[in-house]
Structure formats: structure tokens, C-alpha cells
């Protein structure tokens, strides 16, 4: 137990084989999108609360510079980081692979590293099957929005890790520290890829700047169920605690904005924002919920899914788009897709269905004819891919998402 208070700025060494996973976790802790590089270089991201040293996989057998990366990590976190986070990728969740990576870390930095190590696992299955390793080091299921506070909690009762210099020369490390600090200082706000400064304008309204999908609509239309359909397209092993609460009820089940960040199936982090029905009389503090929603629902940073139940278009939904625009303060129709649920109720073609209902047709046309049909009772993942393809500029937003990657990410389960 430490008798010193933890430092204002915690230093975290971020390790792991896959850059995209390290980036997601680093961004989540920093609350920005400071890390976006795929190349195998060491990147530092900083806010007043955290300094994150995002380190390429120095155990990669093809790495030409493993010692250089290790020395740079040691120099930048001298005399030792507060925390090491090892991100495990989906291909290496077997116990033997996880233990092999940790053994290499022990070999490089000494056995005491496990006392300062958090291992993040990418899915529920490995989280359960490796639960017994918790006795040795902490295990988290990633990504999770509470990571920054978890890191702080984790560091609050222990002193930072201190490097010993069995394998590397202290003299070399401290010389490198001086050199790197000079380089970083010069580049701090210069846009150089070696330094992504977490404070450099990446935070909009205090909300980390990642793409948002916001589900809006009346109670019971299937907002939460549709958000779950999207989430489970990437990972069908999610347990109920990881999903949005969705059930038949005339009372609002979702009573506040709820957020989950997911990487799959988009190939990039996306925040799903489930909302309560702002027009439901039984919703308390509805203006506060609208204000919260506004933080995520900003032009250029989101797509809105206006959720309507296919065969239950009600009078209350006539004019809903205008009413929502009034509340949110901008023309959300520019970024809205009308999402019809209960797809199994459709007889005939969806186009004919919409054409035959003037108020619905009117909404769809206001949204530049972007509409989609979900059957939330089905686990057909293709319906999710087809929806994603209707997001304006989806291919520049999600450049990694192709038919092929979608299928390999989603159809494994
Ligand atoms: N059969 C069927 N039920 C659905 C569909 N979408 C939603 N539901 C059900 O409708 C009910 C209300 O859905 P929910 O997502 O909680 O609505 P919300 O209030 O808009 O979040 C739940 O029981 C869902 O299971 C669908 O496509 N088909
Ligand atoms: Mg709901």
C-alpha cells in the first residue's frame, strides 16, 4: 500500500500485438482520438490526467527494432510507469498465448511487472475462461468507457513500477529520455505523428470524438432492440449486461441516454447511443436527457436512426422529425436513416408499404429516402451491414469495412 497520493498525471505503458486495439483503449482512456496510426511506431498521447505510451509489439519476431522500442518505452516512462496495459487480440486469447506474452514481459522487465499489469480481453468467452488468472494480474473486458477511472482506481493504492536495469543500461535509458523529451517538446503541437497531444482539439463538448449512432423514436418502437442487433452483429456472445435493456412495456424501459462503444462490426470505434422517448409524459427530466443526447448528436459526427415500428405508425409520429429537430437544434434529417422494425410483419415490398402511407413517405423523403428494415428477432447479420452501407460516407468513415471483413468479423459466431 502506498502512502504517497497518486500523481496528477498517470503514466501508462500500452502494449499488445494489434495497433487498432491499443488505439481504441488508449483513446478511451485519454477521451480523445489521439491514436489513429497503424504503423509500427511508438506514439505518445497526453492529457493532464494521463500520459499514454502506445508501444508497438516489440515481441514481433519480424520487428527490426525491439530493443529500441523497449528503451524508448523505458525512457518515456522513466523511472517506471504507473501501469502496464497489455491488450490481447482475438487471435491470442488461449491461455497459453496470453501466458506466453506475459512471460516475455516478465523476462524483459522483471517478475514484479505482474503486480502493475492489467490485461484486457476482447470478448466475454475469454474473459470467463481466463478468470482464474485474476489472482495474478487484473483482467478487464475491453473496450469499456470507464477505463480512465478504473486506471486511476487501480493506481491509487500502489507505487509506480520501477525499472531495474538488469537487461538494459540505465545510462542509455536516461540519455534517451533527455533526447526524446526534447523531440516531444518540439513536436508537441506540431502535428508530428510521434506526438499526438490529447489536448489538441480532439474533444468536442468534453465527449471523445468518435462517430455516434443515435437511436431516436417513441417508446416501444424498438430502439434498444435495434441497438442490440447492431452490437450482436459483431459479437454474438454478449451477455445481457452488455446489451441495452429491451422489453415489451407501455412504460419507458429506457429512461436515460445509454452509451456503448463497439469496434465490431464497423472496423472502427463507434458509439451507440440509445435514448429514452423524449416525448413520453412519464419520462422525468426529459430536457436533461435531450441535453445529454445533444452532446453526441452533432452535425458531422453522427448518424441518427429514427426508429419506427413498421405496422404501428401512430398519429404521435406525424411530425416527429420536426419535433426532434426542434429539440436537438439542427436539421437532423441531413443525417437520418428511418429504421423500420418488426420486419417480419411486412407483406409485399417495403417500397410499396411506404408509398401507401403518406405521413411515413413524407418522413422518408425528408431523410433523402434513406430507410431500412430491421427484423430484431432475427440474427441475420447482413441486415446490419446493409444498414451501415446507408450511413452517409460510410466507406470513408469505415474504410476497413468491406463485404469480406464484415463477413469474417460477423459470421464466425
Ligand atoms: N417481433 C419483433 N419484436 C421487436 C422488434 N424490435 C423490437 N421488438 C420488441 O419490441 C419491444 C420493445 O422494444 P424496445 O427495444 O425495448 O423499444 P424501445 O422502447 O424503442 O427501446 C421489445 O419486446 C422488443 O423485443 C422486431 O423487429 N420484431
Ligand atoms: Mg429502449
From TrEMBL:
Domain AIG1-type G: 208-413
Similarity annotation: Belongs to the TRAFAC class TrmE-Era-EngA-EngB-Septin-like GTPase superfamily. AIG1/Toc34/Toc159-like paraseptin GTPase family. IAN subfamily.
Protein's name in the database: AIG1-type G domain-containing protein
Organism phylogeny: Eukaryota, Metazoa, Chordata, Craniata, Vertebrata
Gene3D superfamilies attached to this UniProt entry: P-loop containing nucleotide triphosphate hydrolases
Segments traversing the membrane: none
Database matches in PANTHER family: GTPASE IMAP FAMILY MEMBER 2-LIKE-RELATED (PTHR10903:SF188), GTPASE, IMAP FAMILY MEMBER-RELATED (PTHR10903)
Keywords: GTP-binding, Nucleotide-binding
One Gene Ontology molecular-function label: GTP binding
Gene that produces this protein: LOC127370986
Amino acid at each position: 500500500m502506498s502512502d504517497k497520493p497518486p500523481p496528477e498525471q498517470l503514466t501508462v505503458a500500452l502494449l499488445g500485438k494489434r495497433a487498432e486495439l491499443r488505439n481504441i483503449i488508449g483513446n478511451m482512456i485519454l477521451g480523445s482520438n489521439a491514436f489513429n496510426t497503424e504503423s509500427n511506431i511508438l506514439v505518445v498521447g497526453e492529457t493532464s490526467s494521463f500520459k499514454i505510451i502506445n508501444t508497438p509489439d516489440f515481441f514481433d519476431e519480424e520487428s527490426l527494432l525491439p530493443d529500441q522500442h523497449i528503451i524508448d518505452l523505458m525512457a518515456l516512462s522513466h523511472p517506471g510507469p504507473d501501469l502496464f496495459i497489455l491488450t490481447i487480440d482475438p487471435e491470442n486469447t488461449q491461455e497459453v498465448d496470453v501466458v506466453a506474452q506475459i512471460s516475455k514481459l516478465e523476462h524483459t522487465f522483471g517478475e514484479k511487472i505482474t503486480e502493475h499489469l492489467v490485461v484486457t480481453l476482447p470478448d466475454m468467452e475469454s474473459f470467463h475462461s481466463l478468470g482464474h488468472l485474476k489472482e495474478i494480474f487484473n483482467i478487464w473486458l475491453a473496450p469499456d468507457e470507464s477505463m480512465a477511472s478504473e486506471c486511476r482506481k487501480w493506481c491509487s493504492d500502489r507505487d509506480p513500477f520501477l525499472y531495474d536495469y538488469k537487461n538494459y543500461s540505465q545510462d542509455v535509458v536516461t540519455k534517451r529520455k533527455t533526447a526524446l523529451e526534447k523531440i516531444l517538446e518540439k513536436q508537441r503541437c506540431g502535428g508530428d505523428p510521434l506526438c499526438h497531444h490529447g489536448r489538441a482539439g480532439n474533444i468536442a463538448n468534453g465527449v471523445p470524438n468518435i462517430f455516434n449512432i443515435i437511436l431516436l423514436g417513441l417508446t416501444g418502437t424498438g430502439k434498444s432492440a435495434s441497438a442490440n442487433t447492431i452490437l450482436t452483429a459483431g459479437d454474438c456472445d454478449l451477455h445481457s449486461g452488455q446489451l441495452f435493456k429491451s422489453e415489451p412495456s407501455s412504460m419507458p424501459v429506457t429512461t436515460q441516454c445509454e452509451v456503448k462503444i463497439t469496434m465490431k462490426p464497423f472496423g472502427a470505434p463507434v458509439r451507440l447511443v440509445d435514448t429514452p422517448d423524449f416525448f413520453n409524459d412519464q419520462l422525468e427530466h426529459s430536457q436533461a436527457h435531450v441535453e445529454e443526447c445533444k452532446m453526441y448528436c452533432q452535425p458531422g459526427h453522427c448518424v441518427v436512426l429514427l426508429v419506427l415500428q413498421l405496422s404501428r405508425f401512430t398519429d404521435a409520429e406525424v411530425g416527429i422529425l420536426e419535433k426532434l429537430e426542434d429539440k436537438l437544434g439542427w436539421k437532423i434529417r441531413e443525417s437520418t436513416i428511418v429504421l423500420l422494425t418488426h420486419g417480419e410483419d411486412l407483406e409485399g415490398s417495403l417500397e410499396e408499404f411506404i408509398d401507401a402511407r403518406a405521413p411515413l413517405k413524407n418522413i422518408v423523403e425528408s431523410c433523402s429516402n434513406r430507410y431500412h428494415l430491421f427484423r430484431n428477432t432475427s440474427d441475420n447479420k447482413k441486415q446490419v451491414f446493409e444498414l451501415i452501407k446507408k450511413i452517409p460516407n460510410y466507406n470513408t468513415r469505415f474504410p476497413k469495412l468491406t463485404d469480406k471483413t464484415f463477413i469474417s468479423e460477423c459470421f464466425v459466431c
